[in-house]
Amino acid sequence: MGGDGHWQGLECFAVRPPPCQGCGLLMPPACLSLPQRSCTCAERCCMHVAVQPWEPGTIRTSCFKSLARGAGLATPAEVYGCRILAVELTSKDFKPVVQEFQSIELSCIITSTTTPDPRIEWKKIQHGETSYVFFDNKMQGDFATRAEIYGRTSLVIKNVTRMDTATYRCEVAAPNDKKNIDELNIELTVLVKPVTPRCRVPKAVPVGKSASLHCQENEGYPAPIYSWYRNSEPLPTDSKSNAKFQNSSFILNPETGTLVFHAVHKGDTGRYYCIATNDAGVAKCEEQEMEVYDLNIAGIVGGVLVVLVVLVLITLGICCAYRRGYFVNNKQNGKNYKTPAKPEGVNYIRTDEEGDFRHKSSFVI
């Protein structure tokens, strides 16, 4: 409120309303949107800014008694009227939601201004960064080919994508108004349909063992909710919550898409598939078979015995072969090597010229 006791952006002035004709309010049309109370037919009514110190900044309705003249005719009384001198904005939808690849209008409406041609700007705020959408009477960036100003100040975006999810700010500057700037924020949400989720189902699990089934999808917005089906029948989030599944022991997390069996039994055998759902649509993965089988204890024990027998036979065979000398090393070593005997009648003589041994025969007569 200003120092003169008036609201900033409001101008009060004296008016002379027409005589009262029937019950109703007698006030300037510019005040009809302000708080008011009904006055009687013998009263005049107007809105004015209270300037009393015990009512600082309040706007109230005053009723003035008419002065009877002649046959009860009302005498016009001078009362206060008001006029808004501020630019003000509003929107038909502050949180619009739209499917991807459709069009959306971001509503920004000027409710009051005395400036004939105010300046309009649109900005996009995403991940803490601000960029221009409409500036200097032109669309900016990629909005130049798929957005336009609708009416006087609203923004229409065509073929929206998931990257358009953001906060958009409408700013209006009106130099002729006392309050010459106003702005509002619009939170746009673009819904994205989920794609086919990736499902992982174990093919075979022995009875009594744990098993985990996984379902994941990363494209949908908002993040989808997951549900699992067995043989086309929906599974609850907890097997204990449904008497139909009392023999099972599983828990489903709808946010992560994980289905965990603590201990499977034969009744858990079946064809499983997952569905991802959000506000934009649904997506389903292909069915996958999970078999739960019994452990053959006798077969396992028999197999172990067969392996032991084979190992014993191999060991016995190696021992017998060793005893019979199949593994003896027949190569001569240095200690066992004997110099061949010199033939009788042969002498080995070394000469300097030859540098090697030579022999000559001698004959005994």
From TrEMBL:
This is Junctional adhesion molecule C. Residues 102-182, 197-291 form the Ig-like domain. One of its GO terms (cellular component) is bicellular tight junction. One of its GO terms (molecular function) is protein heterodimerization activity. It is found in: Cell junction, Tight junction; Cell membrane. InterPro entries: Ig-like_dom, Ig-like_dom_sf, Ig-like_fold, Ig_sub, Ig_sub2, Ig_V-set, JAM-C. It is a single-pass type I membrane protein. The chain crosses the membrane at residues 297-322. The gene is JAM3. PROSITE patterns: IG_LIKE (PS50835). The keyword Endoplasmic reticulum does not apply. Belongs to the immunoglobulin superfamily. Its main location: other. GO terms for biological process: cell migration. Keywords: Cell junction, Cell membrane, Disulfide bond, Immunoglobulin domain, Membrane, Signal, Tight junction, Transmembrane, Transmembrane helix. The keyword Disulfide bond applies.
